[in-house]
Amino acid sequence: MTGLSIHVEQTPDFYIGNIPVHGRLILAPMDGYTDHPFRLICRRWGSACSYSEFINAMDLEGRHPHIGDRMAFTDDERPFGFQILDNSPERIHMAAGILRQRNPDFLDLNLGCCSRSVCSRGAGASLMRDPEKITRIVQMLVTTMDIPITAKMRLGWDEKSRNYLEVAHLIEDAGASALAVHGRTRNQLYSGCADWDAIARIKQELKIPVIGNGDVTRPEDIHRFFTHTACDALMIGRGAVGNPWIFAYKNRSDCSRQEIFQTIREHLKASIRFYGEEHGLIVFRKQAVNYLRDLWPSEEFRRELLTTNDRPAFMEKIQSLIENTSSLC
User: Fold this and answer.
1) Secondary structure class of 113 (helix, strand, coil)
2) Catalytic choice (42, 49, 113, 119)
């Protein structure tokens, strides 16, 4: 008699429109960090879905030579969404049409980037100063695209214009399927503390899923965040850089030396597969700096590692550092 294999379907934790999401921890999109290789590593450690680095609609329009790398994703990243950045509704619509051809699961509108170069042209968090334009953009995307539309925003431009409830309601009423919220204003950048009370208020008032973001850097923070905000999910950004284990509710100090080394090695391999041998190692250096944070025995060792162009020698130095460090805390 042969046994029967029974497949039990896991209940999704929440939905983005009609897209089921299994898990409540998500890697936040971060320009210059959350490329395809890093997203893959975070997914393997438990991130529930993937967002691209922001896609600048002007780069799509001008066919920037590196835009192809930012648009790359694979099926093992699904659910996957492209995040679009611009200040022009027309360019955003153009970009959405181009990106839709690549078959993402959803499209996300960037209302949170706080860099000076972005905000100086009225994009990113600068759009928080123009709720009417946000409404027009979201409505346009919802009515012209056949996949869910989401947005990621901040609490406002500055302390005098914390219009997060107004904007959150407008985004929901315009037909968005989910909303991510970073708990700071644009002018705060990353200073001070994220306002979890404000995120909780948004969650309390909206019917669509709310994904909170801000000041979660350790597994202990995760439980506190969900208890405080009741959000459907949590985006982790800076807390995941050099620490993809957080998606498995682990600190680096909770990992074995072998786990740490294998994760770094797999990340470097993914970077080289994606960018090529020479450029892949160069791109990975800033990731290595974060993986090895607080472990450098000397500035000379750090300089030697980060100027090594030979992959085996690079990994030998990292392995030696991890094996000979007394504490990984």
Assistant:
1) coil
2) 113
The amino acid at residue 243 is: N
CB burial class (10 A; 0-12, 13-18, 19+) of residue 65? exposed
93 CB neighbour count, 10 Å cutoff: 17
> CA 57, CA 48: separation in Å to the nearest integer?
26
DSSP codes joined into one string, 216-256:
--SHHHHHHHHHHH--SEEEESGGGTT-GGGGGT--GGGS-
Close Cβ partners of 136 (under 8 Å, ≥ 6 residues apart)? 89
pLDDT digits (tens, 9 = 90+) for 174-188: 999 999 999 999 999
* pLDDT tens per residue across span 102-134: 999 999 999 999 999 999 999 999 999 999 999
231 is catalytic: no
Q: Give the number of residues written for the chain.
A: 329
Domains of the chain, earliest start first: 14-248 (3.20.20.70), 252-324 (1.10.1200.80)
Q: Does the pLDDT of residue 218 top 80, yes or no?
A: yes
Q: Which residues partner with 235 through β-bridges?
A: 26, 213
How many Cβ atoms from other residues are within 10 Å of residue 158's Cβ? Answer: 13
pTM of the model: 0.94
Residue 191, Cβ density class (10 Å: 0-12 exposed, 13-18 middle, ≥19 buried): exposed
Burial call 28-50: b when 16+ CB within 10 Å, e when fewer = bbbbebbbbbbbbbbbbbbbbbb
**Please, is 221 exposed, middle or buried when counting C-beta atoms within 10 Å of its C-beta (0-12, 13-18, 19+)?**
middle
Residues contacting 255, CB < 8 A, separation 6+: 245, 263, 328
- Determine which helix (DSSP H) or strand (DSSP E) holds 192, and give its type and residue range: none
User: Cβ–Cβ contacts within 10 Å for residue 78, how many?
Assistant: 15
- For residue 283, what is the enclosing H or E element? helix 277-291
